[in-house]
Amino acid sequence: MTVSRLDALELRPSGFAFDPRTGASFSVNATGVQIIEGLRQGQTLDAIVAALHTGWAVDDADLARDVLEFVALLREHGLLDAHFALD
Amino acid sequence: MSPRPSPVTVGVTGLHAGDNPGPGVAVARALRADPAFEGSLVGLGYDAFDAGLHVPGLFDRAALLPYPSAGPEALLQRLVDIHEATPIDVLLPCLDSELAAVIELVPQLAKMGIHTALPTAAQLRQVAKLHLPELNIPGLQVPRTTAHHSAASLATRFAAHRGMLVLKGPLYDARVCAHLDEGVAAFHDLAARWGLPVLAQDHVDGEEYDVCAVGDGRGGTVGAVTMKKLQLSAAGKALAGVAVQAPVLEGLADAIFAHTHWRGPCELELRRDRQDRVHLLEINPRFPAWCDLTTHAGCPLPTAAVALAMGRTPPQCPPAKAGVAFVRATLDQFCDMGDLESLTMHGHRTAP
């Protein structure tokens, strides 16, 4: 699993993120921060969903779909390798 | 502990500072912001309304130069006069249009005790827009660039390229043109403003990065800092930018310096396309107007250029701190009519 650009991302507690290699900046909400940190730790989809589930009254299938959509967004911005897949 | 170098007096040009500022104010501010720089600054403008001449606390003395069109002799005579009143140790010319004349005067300036960190005339020609493909640096693409002395020749150029072209003045200014009609209008405007030839460069789609770097004249790099533009003016100039980690791009500066033995500052304008290929759009043979970012990001290149000019070993420039950003401000500077009178009638003024 390649998450090197995500690892390099300077992620502030506020959700402001800066990519020191490209100069791009992003803003993510608290859920996005949690997903990014999960990805950086090499967590699986199930583990990320389980961690999010404790905070939200949403079923796992919806959460998993939202996480994968977010992962697709990270790929689109080049922060994850184009071939990255979350197991 | 090595002794601190003796203070130096540095003359800085390029002090117009309106919506498209010259680099001089940034160079002076970078020197003022660097605790390692000890010395005084002489602002060298071309017009009493050059805003840099009126920035409080920036220059210890301000004086006017003849416009570059007056030629090297007129420039030398004026520098002799200024040097008699305020001896200058280092001259940092910051405008493309004055470089050829200053380079021609380097031997005379050296005899006067005015040191410079400049390329040779041959090196200056090597990095001219039309000669960039001849650099032939591995890993570096150079968009096709052609010279045009009449708008009529643009028709075949547009037909052959089948894409957007960037029309450029010989030294300044650029317009992105999607079709021939735009190209013809831009040609006449650029020719009227900046003269001929007008250059037509293939447009490259991608992210723009600029590298400010100083070469040591022996094939080495004193330091290099990469900036990503965050906000653009209508003319494509950076209104905001941020220092980034870009060892690959800074490595291109190393390769260009190794090839040319460039001495002094320059700016590489680069574009990285979607296939991650890097294209060299142009090399500006002087500091850019954002060069004070280098000092704030921990790699003070203007101070290094002063040291290089003085024949001292430039301070070690570490990699720039990524994430240090700038947001450009256009400020009104206040002065008295007496200051404008002094500059207009006597060619100099005291510290603003």
Q: What are the secondary-structure elements of chain A, in order, as H or E?
A: HEEEHHH
Give the amount of beta strand of chain A, in percent.
Answer: 5-15%
Topology pattern of chain B, helix = H, strand = E:
EHEEHEHHEEHEEHEEEEHEEHHEHE
Give the integer mean of the pLDDT values of chain A.
90
User: Which two chains have the most extensive interface, and how many residues on each?
Assistant: A-B, 8 and 12 residues
How much of the sequence lies in strands of chain B comes to 25-35%
Q: Assign an overall shape of chain A.
A: globular
pLDDT averaged over residues of chain B: 93
> Helix amount of chain B, in percent?
25-40%
Rg of chain A, Å, rounded: 12 Å
Total beta-strand segments of chain B: 16
User: What quaternary form is this?
Assistant: heterodimer
Please provide a written account of the structure.
The complex is a heterodimer of chains A (87) and B (352). Chain A has 87 residues and is mostly helical. Helix content of chain A is 48%, strand content 9%. Chain A is built from four helices and three strands. The radius of gyration of chain A is 12 Å and the shape is globular. Chain A starts with a helix and ends in an 11-residue tail after the last helix. Chain B is of the alpha+beta class and 352 residues long. Helices cover 31% and strands 26% of the residues of chain B. Chain B is built from ten helices and 16 strands. A seven-stranded mixed β-sheet of chain B has the order 5-14-13-10-11-12-15. Chain B has a five-stranded mixed β-sheet with strand order 4-1-2-3-16. In chain B, strands 6-9-7-8 form a four-stranded antiparallel β-sheet, covered by helices on one side. In chain B, β13 (263-272) and β14 (278-284) form a beta hairpin. The two termini of chain B are 36 Å apart. The model of chain B has no long low-confidence stretch (mean pLDDT 93). Classes of the chains: A mainly alpha (87), B alpha+beta (352). The interface between A and B is small, with 8 and 12 residues.
